């Protein structure tokens, strides 16, 4: 494994029906070495933040296998600021105090703290994270294609 720049990207998705999923990707020197999506679940224990943290956890689990500095990038400013922070938006990490995502935060922050000295954090807008967003939505669509159809889409 080379000592080069590693990019770890993630996104989450939770539809109005309570279907949650994530998309993640790791690039080493610009080459995609990991691309994944996963279905988090359905119902009252799911949220967008659960999905986002699931994606961050998945991509970090892969990214830490590579030597060198790596950057965690996602379009959830909350996740980036709670784990990081992204210095563009302030020097202080945001607190994780309550929410369905807390167990996922705790797993993720353990990995971050083990590798913090070689990590950077960067919030990116949705349009710069299209592939991970697509992966997260496809994980829901593949599992429950009918749940993504809204009643208004069925009208003539």
Give an overview of the whole structure.
By secondary structure, the protein is of the alpha/beta class. The protein has a single domain, classed as Ribonuclease H-like superfamily/Ribonuclease H (Nucleotidyltransferase, domain 5, 2-Layer Sandwich), CATH 3.30.420.10. Helices cover 33% and strands 26% of the residues. It has four helices and five strands. It has helices at residues 48-63, 77-83, 102-115, 130-143; strands spanning 6-14, 19-28, 31-42, 70-74, 119-123. The protein has a five-stranded mixed sheet with strand order 3-2-1-4-5. The protein is globular, with a radius of gyration of 16 Å. Residues 149-156 have low confidence and may be disordered.
Strand line-up of the largest beta sheet? 3-2-1-4-5
In N-to-C order, the SSE pattern is: EEEHEHHEH
Largest sheet descriptor: 5 strands, mixed
- CATH superfamily, called what? Ribonuclease H-like superfamily/Ribonuclease H
- Give the number of helices: 4
How much of the sequence lies in strands comes to 25-35%
Please identify the structural class as seen in this structure.
alpha/beta
How many discrete domains?
1
The Rg value, from CA coordinates, equals 16 Å
**CATH architecture, please?**
2-Layer Sandwich
* Low confidence ranges: 149-156
**Share of helix, binned:** 25-40%
CATH topology: Nucleotidyltransferase, domain 5
Determine the mean pLDDT. 90
- Total strand segments: 5
Distance between the termini: 56 Å
